[in-house]
Amino acid sequence: MEEVTMSGGLFVVLLLAVLVLIIIAKTAVVVPQQSAYVVERLGKYAATLDAGFHILLPFIDRIRYKHSLKETAIDIPEQVCITRDNVQVSVDGILYLKVLNPQRASYGISDYNFALIQLGQTTLRSEIGKIELDRTFEERTNINIQVVNELDKASDPWGVKVLRYEIKNITPPKGVLDAMEKQMRAEREKRAVILTSEGERDAAINQAEGEKQQVIKASEAKKQQQINEAEGAAAAILAIAQATAQGLRKVAETIQMPGGQEAVQLRVAEQYITKFGELAKTNNTLILPATVSDVGSMIALAMSAIRQTSIAPSQKT
Questions:
Q1: Residue 268: CB partners within 8 Å, gap ≥ 6?
Q2: So what's the pLDDT on residue 314?
Q3: Taking Cα atoms as reference points, which of 96, 116, 122 lies closest to residue 157?
């Protein structure tokens, strides 16, 4: 009888121990970093548990939602969009979002991921339909911005912040791709021809400009040479005139000295004879006096002329 009583007591103790462990497991909660748990008390929102250790009321409090506060990437499946010029293109992308308010993320919408994917696809189709095919590739940044703006407005009541959207691929049909490749090749060949012609034109312009500068420099050099030569000639003429004037002054001063008149007469006689000889060399026809062969008479005639020249000023005085 005592053994049966002891076995029953041990069972009760074990049962109480298991019950205590279950209660502890239900009430003690450890929330990881960058996570938030939404707790309901008797079916109503009670609190949002941040990272750390928390104690709940057993059988009354219940963790209803668990949210990660990290930035999350959602793949937007590929879909067919029609551009403004009625070309079908396949577009997919990635959406980056983050939960800012766990309470609104829990009760604002049933599944915000699914809602954002659907809204992202419809917004993307709308934005692609506003532009032509040729501009879809260069307008990717603007399309991403418009999609983020629209999704952010819609997700604000859900406590979710849409950070960015990135288009992964824009794939036109094969026929359109072939046409775009041909167009691209033609555009590149056109640019190559234009660049070649522009290079030749610039080379011709540079060569002509160089020749022009060469001619201008040569004329300026010739002009400067002529100016320098003229200035040199003028300086030489001026120097000769000054020297002649100075020489004449010296001669005039010398004439006034004793013996000056005789020296002048001798000089005049020499010049007369010299010029007479030069005249005979440069002219074919020359009238000579009858006594031209008589050098002494010629000298006498010259001296006479000198004396007459020297007498004339004295007579005037």
A1: 302, 305, 306, 309
A2: 47
A3: 116
Question: What residues form DSSP beta bridges with 61?
Answer: 41
Looking from the CA of 262 toward its CB, the CA atoms found within 13 Å total: 3
Instruction: Report the Cα–Cα distance between both ends of the chain, in Å, rounded.
Output: 194
Spatial CB neighbours of 172, under 8 Å, sequence gap ≥ 6: 87, 88, 89, 133, 180
What ranges in the chain are assigned the alpha helix state H? 2-27, 102-107, 112-128, 133-136, 140-155, 174-255, 260-282, 295-316
Q: 104-142: buried (b, 16+ CB within 10 Å) or exposed (e) per residue? A: bbbebbeebeebbbebbbebbeebbeebebeebeebeee
Tokens for 140, please give them: 């990717």
Pairing of strands 88-99, 160-171: antiparallel
pTM for the model stands at 0.55
DSSP three-state, residue 39:
strand
* Token code pair at residue 281: 């060399």
64 with 36: CB under 8 angstroms?
no
Low-confidence ranges of the chain (pLDDT < 50): 313-317
pLDDT at residue 300, rounded to an integer: 64
Distance separating alpha carbons of residues 170 and 154, to the nearest angstrom: 25
68 bridge partner residues: 35
Instruction: Please give the angle made by the CA atoms of 51, 57 and 58, to the nearest 5 degrees.
Output: 115
Count CA atoms within 13 Å of residue 95 on its CB side.
Answer: 32
Torsion of CA 40, 45, 51, 53, to 10 degrees: -40
